[in-house]
Design goal:
The protein contains 2 helices and no strands. It is mostly helical. It is rod-shaped.
């Protein structure tokens, strides 16, 4: 009986600890963390498309100077 009570107590402590630490893990969503990098990537893609449209070469798998 004592072992069961000790097991229940230890499980309760671990469960409380797990919920407390989990709340701290997701304070900032991944979208907020990656917003700057995503915006920079979008701007780079837009500038590549603009260069491709303004010039006579197309960006593809071949070397750019062919």
């Amino acid at each position: 009986m004592e072992a069961l009570l000790l097991l229940i107590l230890i499980n309760a402590v671990v469960l409380i600890f797990a919920f407390k630490t989990k709340m701290g893990l997701f304070t900032i969503s991944p979208e907020e963390q990656w917003k700057k990098e995503i915006d920079e990537f979008d701007n780079t893609i837009k500038s590549i498309k603009k260069l491709e449209h303004e010039s006579d070469f197309k960006i593809g798998p071949d070397h750019i100077y062919k």
